[in-house]
Amino acid sequence: MMIIRSVARAGHRAFLQSPSQPWRRFLATQTDTIERTADNSFKQFHSLEAQYDASAPPQEVVPSFDPPAASDPASAQVTGSVAEQYLRFKQSQAQIGKIGSEITPHYQPHTLLSNPPSPADVTLELLLASEAHQGHATSLWNPANARYIHGIRQGVHIISLEATAAHLRRAAKVVQEVSRRGGLVLFVGTRDGQDRAVARASELAKGYHLFERWIPGSITNGQQILSKCRTKVVNAKDEEIPGFEEQLADRPVLRPDLVVCMNPLENYVLLHECALNNIPTIGVIDTNADPTWVTYPIPANDDSLRCIQVIAGVLGRAGEAGQKQRLELAENGRVTYRPAENLVLPEAMQEKTVAAAEPGAELDLNESLEDADELADKLDMAKNREISDHAARGIKKID
């Protein structure tokens, strides 16, 4: 009974104390294992960092950007880490900075208007990039353009760029010569988007531009349509000379000496009026247009705004060169055009009026009457010619 009591007294304690020892041993071993693993990983990290520092080139000491803050240990550590990162970035940039592709100059649309090409800059690459070779479908072609067509691709005619470049250079020479001789050049482009190119070309060539609808009869019946437009008299250096307003009131309206049309299909009436009045024309002829409508055709794509800008810019530069030559000759006292006739200087007109007020001025009055009679005879002859021309045209139409 004593043995059982002793076991009963110590059994509860033995039951509570015996299982705790294995758990303590297990937790202790797990903690030691984790600590050893962490120590090993830190040692490996430090060894790798030492190897990297040994292999890296010597680094320059970067001064602190904030000297007062260097006294603080935390701020100094942050500044040092930023400086190290910056130095490593510069080292990597020096090693791999040259690797990669380079960005070359690309197409900028505004350059064709701000700085258009000159006739010397016309190349096949420029025309190809502006899509000047794209024609229309083969079912829409005009057989008169067969000499300008290079071939067919996917049912579309391809315009020969060699023919385009040759005809563009020839048209540029025509514009340059007309501008050198003081002629009026009219640039016409009535399609959407052509207004800026036409205005820029006329600005360079000191000509005129039209980007709205052409008024029929502006050339054949210009005295009635354009009679209210202001005209002025200028000298060889393009300086206005006042005092001729009364004499210009009865003079015929001005007509262009050369017309450059960017879309001949929509301006057939304009080209017809130019042909009736023997005004040479330059036109961009696509594969669906008739090249006989204009005097100097330029086979190209009239639907591409970039192509129109190239052609208009080249012709504008040619006109600018011609105007420059004319002004240089004018500085030397040479006039490259025929001056206007039947104009009297204002000083001479004043002298005539004073002489007419004095007695014995009947001779001057008789001379003025004779001049008026001659002018009336010339007008009658001109009217008879117009009537005969209209009659001849009517006979041709009837035949």
From TrEMBL:
<dbReference type="GO" id="GO:0003735">
    <property type="term" value="F:structural constituent of ribosome"/>
</dbReference>
<comment type="similarity">
    <text>Belongs to the universal ribosomal protein uS2 family.</text>
</comment>
<dbReference type="InterPro" id="IPR023591">
    <property type="entry name" value="Ribosomal_uS2_flav_dom_sf"/>
</dbReference>
<dbReference type="GO" id="GO:0006412">
    <property type="term" value="P:translation"/>
</dbReference>
<keyword id="KW-0689">Ribosomal protein</keyword>
<dbReference type="InterPro" id="IPR005706">
    <property type="entry name" value="Ribosomal_uS2_bac/mit/plastid"/>
</dbReference>
<keyword id="KW-0687">Ribonucleoprotein</keyword>
<dbReference type="Pfam" id="PF00318">
    <property type="entry name" value="Ribosomal_S2"/>
</dbReference>
<dbReference type="GO" id="GO:0005763">
    <property type="term" value="C:mitochondrial small ribosomal subunit"/>
</dbReference>
<protein>
    <submittedName>
        <fullName>Ribosomal protein S2</fullName>
    </submittedName>
</protein>
<feature type="compositionally biased region" description="Low complexity">
    <location>
        <begin position="63"/>
        <end position="75"/>
    </location>
</feature>
<dbReference type="InterPro" id="IPR001865">
    <property type="entry name" value="Ribosomal_uS2"/>
</dbReference>
<feature type="region of interest" description="Disordered">
    <location>
        <begin position="56"/>
        <end position="75"/>
    </location>
</feature>
